[in-house]
Every structure is written in structure tokens, then in C-alpha cells.
Amino acid sequence: MTLVTLVTGADAAMREAAIAALIEPGIRTALILEGLPNGKSSLDDISHDPSLQIARIAPGCLCCTGNLTMRVTLNRMLRRPPERLYIGLATPEHLERIRDFLTHAPYDTLLQLTKELHA
């Protein structure tokens, strides 16, 4: 199963810095990041790592207006399942709905959610 951590925080740069600090070299890791940081990202220096897969999604609620985009992106990443998956959320507004989405079929047998990370 892929371990999934939902990451929330004030802005994209803070969320990405928190995620970058947790990435372990050599561990297949995937990131789904909502929004773009203003300026340089903490992930820029490690983005070339072949064990790291990064997808960016335009800001918008991932469980409402961005549901299809989230589902397609997640399905593509799970074709080659990573060991770790971090999902950076622009707002924690619908955190429970996103957790619900990730814990129901077909994802319930593929993903194991961890405690959220607040950047």
C-alpha cells in the first residue's frame, strides 16, 4: 500500500518546504501539489531525482471542482505505485471530504492515509 500524507499550510512554498524535508532518497515518492509557490520551490533541487514524481494541479477545491483532475492525476501515479504520496492542499476546508474520497473504492485497497501535516 502507498502511504499518503495530506499537507496543508498557509502557502504553497511552506507546504513544499515541509514535504521536501520529509522526502527520503531512493524511496519512490509522488507529489500532487495544488497551486504554485511564489518564486523558488524547496523541491527544485530534488525534482530531477528519478524516484520522485511531481504533478501540479491548478488551485481549486480538489474534492469539488477539481475532483476529475485529482482522480486522473492520482490514477496515473498509481500505475507505478509509489511507496509514499504527499498531497499538498491549498486550503484545509474540505479535508474530511478528501480523506473520504481517498479511503473509498478503488483507493481503499491501494492507499493508507497517515496523519495530516500542517506546514
Written description of the protein model:
The protein is of the alpha/beta class. It has helices at 12-22, 67-77, 95-102; strands at residues 2-8, 29-34, 52-57, 84-88, 111-113, 117-118. Strands 1, 2, 3, 4, 5 and 6 form a six-stranded parallel sheet that branches. The protein starts with a strand and ends with a strand. The mean pLDDT is 90.
Most strands sheet: 6 strands, parallel
The CATH C-level name is Alpha Beta
Query: Roughly how much helix do the residues carry, as a percent range?
Result: 25-40%
CATH architecture: 3-Layer(aba) Sandwich
What is the CATH topology? Cobalt-precorrin-4 Transmethylase, domain 1
Q: What proportion strand?
A: 15-25%
Computed over alpha carbons, the radius of gyration is: 13 Å
What is the 3D shape?
globular
Tell me the series of helices and strands, N- to C-terminal. Answer: EHEEHEHEE
Number of helices: 3
Number of domains: 1
Low-confidence stretches: none
Quaternary structure annotation: single chain
Q: Roughly how many Å apart are the termini?
A: 25 Å
Q: Mean of residue pLDDT?
A: 90
Question: Would you count the extended β strands for me?
Answer: 6
- Structural category is alpha/beta
Structure summary:
The chain has 119 residues and is of the alpha/beta class.
Task: Write the SSE topology.
Blueprint: E1 2-8, H1 12-22, E2 29-34, E3 52-57, H2 67-77, E4 84-88, H3 95-102, E5 111-113, E6 117-118
Parallel strand pairs: 1-4, 1-5, 1-6, 2-3, 2-4
